[in-house]
Amino acid sequence: MSRSGQVKNRAPAPIQISAEQILREAADRQEAHTVDPVVQIHDAEEYQSYLRDRRKHFEDNIRYRREHIGNWVKYARLEEEHKEFERTRSIFERALEVDGRSGELWLRYAEFEMRNEFVNHARNILDRAIQLLPRVDFLWYKYVYMEELVRDIPKCRAIFERWMKWMPDDNAWLSYARFETRCGSLDRAEAVMRRYVNAYPSAKAFLKFAKWAEYEAKHIDLARSILEACLSELEPEESRQAHVFQKFAFFEERQGEYERARVIYEHAIKLLHLGEVKPMELDDDISQWEQKRREELYKSYLSFEKKHGDREGIEKVLLAKQRKQYDNRVENNPHDYDAWFEFAKLEEDAGNISSVRDVYERAVAQVPPSTNKDHWRRYIYLWIYYATYEELSNQDTDRASQIYQTCLKVIPHKEFTFAKIWIYAAKVHVRRKDLAAARKLLGRAIGLCGKEQIFTEYIALELSLGEIDRCRALYNNYLKSMPHNCVAWSKYAELETSLGETERCRAIFELAVTQPTLDMPEVLWKGYIDFEINEGEGDHARKLYERLLEKTSHVKVWISFGQFEASEIGQGMGIARSTFQKAYDQIKNQNLKEERVLLLDAWRALEQDRGDLASVEKVEKMLPRRIKRKRMRKDSGGNDLGWEEYFDYQFPDEGQSGSSNLKILEMAAKWKKSVVDSSDDSDDEISD
């Protein structure tokens, strides 16, 4: 079992540890801090002896590890603490002979001179250092810091100029500009920054120049012109970066120029294709960092519109964001048809016809790779939605018809087909008032697939047009291809009935009931009998009941037959009672208890409605008694599963076995009553 599936014990530990105990144990385990012994010096001789010992110690360390700069620095620090400045300089010079290219050593040497206010010595040391190591920036920083600290402005400016000849990094140029700003020479500072952007023509340099102009020079127009120059003068690789537009928009927002900021955002979104459907190759050359910056730019635009935009602007931003999300989703899984539905609905709500058509065209181009019909069901609805949109939203029935025609070409009809596509395509032709094309298309559909739905829709179309002969021809073809379909026979008969063609209708029913196989014969027989009853042909209906009872002895047929005989066109209640009695005897012989109960309930209801009290009592005496019994339940293999309770019916006219069972039950009830009475008598005697 993996560790991720284990459940940790969250119960508290039996022994709890307090913070006080932890601190006490930590204090007890600490080792004693060793302190160097305090050396007390009483005279000059002891002082010199102490110095000799310390110097000997450092000289030995230097001898053992000559290249270790830390020993030299500590040695020099000792001499500095005792005001032996010449010795300190000697130690640093000796160290420089060992490692003259150590910038850290030069810095320590210069700091020693500066701490002790030997300014000229420090200048000489830093001058030597920057000549030897011109690429070590902290030496330059220390040099200009010292000159500015002593307020030697020309000297500091000269050092900056020497430094700038070596083309240092961005911070060096900014330090020079800030130095000039502190000196109050904004023109000189601006000139330095212009030299900087000329030396490094990049988006980073322009943005730093604009930031300096805004915050330090307080020159808003200059900052705006710099940002505009960044977008216009630099190469596209530099100027079309997301953070450039973001910084520019932030600047305009800080100045209260919201329309300018909105224009910058919209230009960036259009230029960088943010939130729009674009080919995937445009993203191949974009780094992950730049992609992240573009996402941040888009979030900034959304936040800006929420703060300063109107409802239309916010909806536009949200639409672009959702469009981007759906575009990524369908690119990752082109056969995610639910995503295409949602994408198309989004574009429809936006109201851009070209975008909607583009999404639908891209969606229907994703044909399912297999010939499994289940994989095609969602795909087919893309075509349906596309055609519906063109017809209802754009009122373009011609384009909708073309869409359906293209869809029919895509479907592999030899493997499977979709009846709804044929029907929808034909209905579009009807709405275009092109009946010939609709009939041709439906005829082609019948030839290719011949589904029931196509027949019914084609017949409904012709019937609405009043083409009765065409309807009859369609019904003939319908029944030739599906002679077992009882619904088709019934609908055909209903058509002839509505036209008053009684003999045609009767002939259709006769032909239908003689078919060898029918899917729902009860529907067909019921329709035939109801037709004869509605026509007032009681003899024909009675003969149909008798023919049906020869095929089946279902209880519902007997009930319907009995109710028919009791109706106005039947032969009266006498024949109805004999029919029910005959049905009861036949079902009793078949030992069908549930059916007998249904028959008796229907018989009693009929007697209560049309009969007299005596006939009702007679039927009620035939009603069974409902009893609860137990039986062993078995599985498919014949194994016992346990006892279960069920309800059974005990009829009054059952045989001796039934009466004996009733007598046994009566005797058991009497015995139980006698036992209860005897227990009551014994209790009375005890109490007496």
TrEMBL record:
Domain Pre-mRNA-splicing factor Syf1/CRNKL1-like C-terminal HAT-repeats: 452-544
Role description: Involved in pre-mRNA splicing and cell cycle progression. Required for the spliceosome assembly and initiation of the DNA replication.
The protein's name: Suppressor of forked domain-containing protein
Entry keyword Nucleus: yes
Record organism: Cylindrotheca closterium
GO biological process per UniProt: spliceosomal complex assembly
Gene Ontology cellular-component terms listed: post-mRNA release spliceosomal complex; precatalytic spliceosome; Prp19 complex; U2-type catalytic step 2 spliceosome
Organism lineage: Eukaryota, Sar, Stramenopiles, Ochrophyta, Bacillariophyta
Pre-mRNA-splicing factor Syf1-like N-terminal HAT-repeats domain: residues covered: 57-201
Key word Disulfide bond present: no
Sequence similarity: Belongs to the crooked-neck family.
